[in-house]
Amino acid sequence: MSRWDIVIAHQHKRILDGVTDYWKHSNYGESLHLRVFTQRDTLRHYLRLKPGIHMLVSEPELLQELTQEDVSGILVMALSTDDGALEFTFPFIVENPYQPLSRLFHIITERCQLELSQAADQSLAHPCRIVGITSAGGGAGKTTVAFHLAKHAVGLGQRTFLLNIDPIQEYSLLRQPRGEADEASASLSQLFYYLKREQESDKRLPVPLEQYTVSLPALGASTFDPLHMMEEWGVIDLKLMQRLLHCIQASGRYDLIIVEGGHEHRPFEAVWSMNGEVIWLLHDEMGHMLKSQLIFQEWMDAEDETVRRRPKQMRLIVNRYMGTLMNRWTYREAVVSGFLPYIPTWKQIHRPEQWFQSTVFESTLANWAHTHLNLTGLDSLRRTAQ
């Protein structure tokens, strides 16, 4: 049985005492975790700080100054007899406050179960693809390709999530200055705690993913806070990464997850294990190509059949192409599928916006994605996240 986190707010403590007393002595004490508030300020602070809240039940007066950001990912139930007079900046449902507590708690439980079921159905109906970007070493252009691919996908209507699993998080260069909302956002350690609990209990726990994500306005995509990712990088193993990717997929909020990171990092193996599509970047340079060939040959000699299939499953792109080694790639098990233009000025980038000033690179990558990833004609898939 799932244990739902419920917040009930009312200005009169006497009423909340009655609700709490009923909850403690009923069977709902096992299925619901309850917190109660009488003050708007403390309620708002708790909503923003505490992850895992499933429903807020409140009288209308305490909902008046709350914003969409305050209740993002939380079901809101307003206790009122006049639903026509209620206006808030976020979605809500209305229930009669003058009904038996047994009936009210029954409705709360049913609503939570319904939302979980609908989210699962939506996830199955609209599968979220995983695309991994990796290479034989650093400096191959993984971040540049990830940024441009994400921007292109967003332009086609794809709700895109960027995930960097390397210890250095260049995504912080595209973040806006940290504001009050960022300071109050939940730490990734809390998300990982929920995922580990899910792993230990071997059942899915509803996780409010939106409380941990931040936006990259230059791309129109979402990601985890880069500073939080650097702090938690050392605790992410293969199993946790699999849970994390599943959590993002199951949220129903994204159509595409782009994962960039070094192939040697164990968490990147989650991309292969979850049937993701992998892009391998090659430098137009002999040493880098030789290193890639040695890695591929090591995989081909592995005992694990899934590892042996990797070179054939990947799509190779030669990045920073100068044309000097076009015919030197001889590894037949992995065929080069495209070439990205070499632009020397990228070595002198000193402003983040310069990343997106090459129309040649953008169009080349867009054409490649159209052919090899089928990233085209997706405007009809644009949907508003629930």
From TrEMBL:
What domain of life is recorded for the organism?
A: Bacteria
UniProt xrefs under CDD domains: SIMIBI
Task: List, alphabetically, the InterPro entries matched.
Answer: P-loop_NTPase
Cross-referenced SUPFAM superfamilies = P-loop containing nucleoside triphosphate hydrolases
This chain belongs to the protein called: ParA family protein
